[in-house]
C-alpha cells in the first residue's frame, strides 16, 4: 500500500503545480484584456519624436572698433551665425555717418551685395566685409564715427554698431619750385656767370626738413646754389634760392637742358630748365661793326652815283 500512496501523492503535487501556472497565465491575460494592450519592456519603448531645431540668427563683428588716420578706409568683418531648418535669404543694409560712404561686400570679391542666402548647420558661419570711408577729398576731424550694419529675414533680425576712430589728420608734404619769372627757359653767355632766381615753396601741412640741391648738366658746366641748402621749410612758407649757371667759354651756341633737383627728407622736386647759350659779346660786337661798315659803304656809293 505504500507504493500506490506515493503515486497518488506525486500525481496530486504535479496537478497543483500545473494549476498554479495556468492560473497565472489566465490572470495575465485578463489584465491585458482590461488594459487593451500589453506593456513593452523599457528597452523596447519607442523614442519620442525629434523636435525641430530652434531658429536663431546673430551678426557678430570681429573688430567692432577700429582706428586709423583721417582719410583712410575702415574695413570690418562680420560673421552671420544662422541656426534653423532650411536656407533663408537675409537682407543687408548699412547706415553711415554724414560725410561718409559705405559698402557691403562678400569676403572674397570686390562687388557690393544687398542680400545673402544662409544655409543652416554649417561648421563655419558665412562672413561679409563692411567698408566705410570719408567722401573723396574729405579729411574728417579726429573723433569717433559710428555706422550701423543691419541684417534680417522676416522675424530674424540683428544689427551691430561699427565705430571708426579717426586718431589724427596725417601731415602732407608737397614741395614746389618755380622761377621768379615763371618761365622754364633762360639765356646764358658762355664763359660768364648767369644768375637764375627760383622760389622753393612748401604746399603741404607738415614741415619739410633738410632740403639739399643738386644738378644734372653738360660736361664742364658749373651750377652753384646760394644758400646751398634749406634746413627746414614750414608749411605755407617759401624761400628764394639764387642759382649761378656758367657754361664753359668755348660752348657752342645752342639750347641745353639743365636739371635742378631739390631733395627734402619727405618731398622732392625736379625743375628742368632749357638754357640757350648765345654768342659771346666780342663776336656780337664784331658782327655789328661789320654791318655798320657795309651800310656806310653803301651810303657813300649811292652818293657818288647820285652826283654823276
Summarize the structure.
20% of the residues lie in helices and 45% in strands.
Shape: rod-shaped
**Unreliable stretches covering 5 or more consecutive residues:** 24-30
The number of distinct β-strands equals 18
Distance N terminus to C terminus? 211 Å
Rg over C-alpha atoms, rounded to the nearest angstrom: 51 Å
Strand order of the largest sheet: 2-9-8-4-6
Q: What do you see in this structure?
A:
By secondary structure, the protein is α+β, with helices and mostly antiparallel strands. It has 2 domains: 56-166, Sandwich (Immunoglobulin-like); 175-282, Immunoglobulin-like, CATH 2.60.40.10. The chain is 20% helix and 45% strand. The strands form 4 sheets. Strands 2-9-8-4-6 form a 5-stranded mixed sheet, with no helix packed on it. Strands 11-18-17-13-15 form a 5-stranded mixed sheet, with no helix packed on it. Strand 17 (254-263) and strand 18 form a beta hairpin. It starts with a helix and ends with a helix. 14% of the residues are buried.
Could you give the topology of this structure?
Blueprint (H helix, E strand, L loop, with lengths): L1 H34 L20 E6 L3 E4 L5 E10 L4 E8 L4 E7 L8 E4 L7 E9 L8 E11 L2 E11 L8 E5 L5 E5 L4 E9 L5 E9 L5 E5 L2 E5 L4 E9 L7 E10 L4 E11 L2 H27 L1
Main attributes?
308 residues; alpha+beta; Immunoglobulin-like; 2 domains; five-stranded mixed sheet; 45% strand; rod-shaped
Amino acid at each position: 500500500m505504500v507504493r500506490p500512496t506515493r503515486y497518488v501523492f506525486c500525481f496530486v503535487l504535479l496537478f497543483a503545480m500545473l494549476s498554479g501556472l495556468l492560473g497565472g497565465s489566465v490572470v495575465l491575460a485578463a489584465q491585458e484584456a482590461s488594459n487593451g494592450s500589453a506593456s513593452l519592456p523599457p528597452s523596447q519603448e519607442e523614442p519620442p519624436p525629434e523636435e525641430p531645431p530652434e531658429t536663431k540668427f546673430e551678426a557678430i563683428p570681429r573688430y567692432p572698433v577700429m582706428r586709423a588716420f583721417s582719410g583712410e578706409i575702415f574695413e570690418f568683418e562680420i560673421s552671420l551665425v544662422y541656426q534653423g531648418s532650411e536656407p533663408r535669404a537675409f537682407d543687408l543694409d548699412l547706415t553711415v555717418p554724414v560725410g561718409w560712404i559705405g559698402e557691403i561686400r562678400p569676403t572674397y570679391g570686390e562687388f557690393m551685395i544687398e542680400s545673402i542666402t544662409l544655409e543652416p548647420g554649417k561648421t563655419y558661419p558665412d562672413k561679409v566685409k563692411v567698408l566705410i570711408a570719408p567722401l573723396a577729398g574729405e579729411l574728417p576731424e579726429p573723433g569717433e564715427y559710428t555706422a550701423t550694419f543691419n541684417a534680417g529675414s522676416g522675424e530674424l533680425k540683428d544689427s551691430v554698431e561699427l565705430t571708426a576712430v579717426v586718431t589724427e589728420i596725417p601731415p602732407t608734404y608737397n614741395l614746389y619750385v618755380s622761377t621768379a619769372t615763371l618761365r622754364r627757359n633762360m639765356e646764358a653767355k658762355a664763359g660768364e656767370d648767369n644768375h637764375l632766381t627760383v622760389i622753393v615753396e612748401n604746399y603741404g601741412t607738415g614741415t619739410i626738413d633738410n632740403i639739399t640741391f643738386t644738378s644734372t648738366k653738360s660736361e664742364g658746366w658749373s651750377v652753384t646754389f646760394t644758400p646751398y641748402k634749406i634746413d627746414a621749410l614750414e608749411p605755407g612758407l617759401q624761400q628764394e634760392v639764387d642759382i649761378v649757371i656758367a657754361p664753359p667759354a668755348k660752348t657752342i651756341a645752342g639750347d641745353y637742358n639743365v636739371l635742378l633737383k631739390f631733395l627734402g627728407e619727405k618731398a622732392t622736386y625736379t625743375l628742368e630748365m632749357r638754357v640757350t647759350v648765345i654768342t659771346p659779346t666780342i663776336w656780337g660786337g664784331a658782327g655789328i661793326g661789320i654791318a655798320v661798315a657795309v651800310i656806310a659803304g653803301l651810303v657813300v656809293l649811292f652818293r657818288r652815283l647820285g652826283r654823276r
